[in-house]
Structure formats: structure tokens, C-alpha cells
């Protein structure tokens, strides 16, 4: 069982990924820089960003300002929806690296499998994108490659032409949203599962059930969500720009949720909205 932020999951190629990281969605460059710097000072070693977040420069500056060695930090970014296809992916990757100020990525993900602009050609576009990912991986520019918001049929389609199986799938996973079909698929295929929006973008804090449970454990609702993620076997990516909250989110290793409470959290349907349908997103 995990005991600290330094504990890791092992990806199929042997690379290790920290069990908890900092999500940076909705944080602009200046806010992201401070959040990343704070997180790294509190012991986080996994930082998650994306081209679509518009904050790769700020994330990169926070990493630089931390003074930590590059190899001590696990950095993830994601391909923007508009950049599917082989050549566009290669160009987008170089832009991401320039903004981050890094010479390699630890993990690169296809952000969505079926963007609206590729709705009628998504399969071919995705396969060409993945071919670029494989080339970048084999060139040593990325330590691990994966996907985000992919359902089983998307991964099956990718594997029709792939040389390398996705190593990670990042999904919306939080109280009431467990997506068992794709989670089970990933586990059967040795794909590490990451949970984004583990707080349901904040809606879970309004849950009376979670508030009562948190009081019973002497923890916060957020800490219960992250502990639930750990016990579910997910890498969790809590997003915060508040240094106090960022630190608070590390205090999840000194208690264990009872199975009955795990089941209650899993069954809180509607508390965090719904899982997105990647085949019907409008972006």
C-alpha cells in the first residue's frame, strides 16, 4: 500500500509514475508557475499539463524555478485536438517542448480520440498521430506514451496499426464516476489508469454524504476523494492553485477507507456530473 508521494505505479515499459500528481487545468501561466513551484516544494513529483490548457510556459517555469534536477520530476503533457495527424503531431510536440523548456517528456498523451474537426476521419487521424508518438518514443524524446479519454473501441482501433500499446489512459474518475468497462479493459491490457478531476471540478465538496464521512475520519472531503483513488488503483491528479490545498492533498497516507465507505463513494452517482462521451464532444 502506498505510504508517500514518492511511491509509484510501474508502467508496462518499466518507467515509474508517482501515485499522486498536480493537475493544472484552468490555471493560467502565472498561476500555474506558482502552483507547480508550491507542489514541488511539498514533495509532489508528478506534474500534469496539456497544450490545450495554455499554461505550458508557466508549468515549465515553475519546474525551472524549483531547482530540482530534471530527472526528479515526472512531466506529462497532451496533444491538442486540432493537431491530430503525423506531421501536425510532430510540430505540436516541438512547440510543447519549447514552451516547457524541456528536452524530453516523461509522458505524452493523445488528449481526446475523436475531436470534432476529425469526426468523420478520426480513426485514420488517430492512427497517424499514434505513429508520430511511437517515433518520438523510439527516438528517446518521450519516456512513455499513452492516451486520455479513450474507450475500448478507440484503443482497439489504434491497435490495428500500432507497434506499441498505450501505456497510460487518463480518464475522468471520481466519486460516482468509476467507468468500470474501460478501467477493466485497461487493467486487462496492462495500461495504467490515471484519474483526472478527482473532485469532480469541485462539485463533490457539496455532498452531505462526503461531508459526514470526512468528519467521521477526521479528514477533508478532498482527502477522502484522493484516498479513494489510491485504493481504487488510480494515479490521481488533483488540481489546485492554492498552496494550502496543494499541501493538504498530500495528507492521505495515514488512514484507510473501509470497504463499505469505498462502495458508498463509488455509488455517489450525480455528485460529480457525468463522464464525458469522447465521440460526441464539441471541441
Describe the fold and architecture.
By secondary structure, the chain is of the alpha/beta class. The chain has a domain at 16-202 and 233-240: NADP-dependent oxidoreductase domain (TIM Barrel, Alpha-Beta Barrel), CATH 3.20.20.100. It is 39% helix and 13% strand. It has ten helices and ten strands. The chain has helices at 29-41, 56-66, 86-100, 122-138, 152-159, 180-188, 208-217, 221-232, 243-248, 259-266, and strands at residues 8-10, 16-18, 22-23, 46-48, 74-79, 107-110, 145-148, 168-172, 192-196, 235-237. The strands form two sheets. An eight-stranded parallel beta sheet has the order 3-4-5-6-7-8-9-10. The chain has a two-stranded antiparallel ribbon with strand order 1-2. The chain is globular, with a radius of gyration of 18 Å. The mean pLDDT is 97.
Keywords:
283 residues, alpha/beta, TIM Barrel, 8-stranded parallel sheet, two-stranded antiparallel sheet, 10 helices, 10 strands
Structure at a glance:
The protein has 283 residues and is of the alpha/beta class. Helices cover 39% and strands 13% of the residues. The chain has a domain of 195 residues: TIM Barrel (Alpha-Beta Barrel), CATH 3.20.20.100.
CATH topology of the domain at 16-202 and 233-240: TIM Barrel
Overall, the morphology is: globular
Helix/strand-derived class? alpha/beta
Assigned CATH class of the domain at 16-202 and 233-240: Alpha Beta
Largest sheet: 8 strands, parallel
Runs in which pLDDT lies below 50 for 5 or more consecutive residues are: none
Spatial order of the strands in the main sheet?
A: 3-4-5-6-7-8-9-10
Number of helices: 10
Amino acid at each position: 500500500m502506498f505510504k508517500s508521494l514518492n511511491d509509484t505505479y510501474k508502467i508496462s515499459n518499466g518507467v515509474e509514475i508517482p501515485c499522486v500528481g498536480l493537475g493544472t487545468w484552468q490555471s493560467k501561466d502565472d498561476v500555474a508557475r506558482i502552483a507547480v513551484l508550491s507542489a514541488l516544494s511539498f514533495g509532489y513529483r508528478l506534474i500534469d499539463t496539456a497544450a490545450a490548457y495554455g499554461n505550458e510556459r508557466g508549468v515549465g517555469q515553475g519546474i525551472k524555478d524549483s531547482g530540482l534536477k530534471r530527472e526528479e520530476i515526472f512531466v506529462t503533457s497532451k496533444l491538442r485536438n486540432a493537431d491530430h495527424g503525423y506531421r501536425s503531431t510532430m510540430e505540436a510536440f516541438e512547440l510543447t517542448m519549447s514552451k516547457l523548456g524541456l528536452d524530453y517528456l516523461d509522458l505524452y498523451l493523445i488528449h481526446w480520440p475523436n475531436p470534432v474537426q476529425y469526426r468523420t476521419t478520426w480513426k485514420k487521424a488517430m492512427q497517424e498521430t499514434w505513429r508520430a508518438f511511437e517515433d518520438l518514443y523510439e527516438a528517446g524524446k518521450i519516456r512513455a506514451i499513452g492516451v486520455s479519454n479513450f474507450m475500448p473501441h478507440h484503443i482497439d482501433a489504434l491497435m490495428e496499426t500500432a507497434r506499441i500499446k498505450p501505456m497510460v489512459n487518463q480518464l475522468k474518475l471520481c466519486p460516482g464516476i468509476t467507468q468500470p468497462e474501460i478501467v477493466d479493459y485497461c487493467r486487462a491490457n496492462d495500461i495504467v489508469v490515471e484519474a483526472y478531476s478527482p473532485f469532480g471540478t469541485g462539485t463533490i465538496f457539496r455532498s452531505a454524504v462526503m461531508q459526514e464521512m470526512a468528519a467521521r475520519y477526521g479528514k477533508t472531503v478532498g482527502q477522502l476523494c484522493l484516498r479513494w483513488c489510491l485504493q481504487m488503483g488510480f494515479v490521481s491528479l488533483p488540481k489546485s492553485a492554492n498552496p494550502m490545498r496543494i499541501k493538504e492533498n498530500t495528507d492521505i497516507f495515514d488512514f484507510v477507507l473501509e470497504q463499505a465507505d469505498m462502495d458508498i463513494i463509488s455509488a455517489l452517482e450525480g455528485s460529480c456530473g457525468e463522464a464525458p462521451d469522447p465521440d460526441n464532444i464539441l471541441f
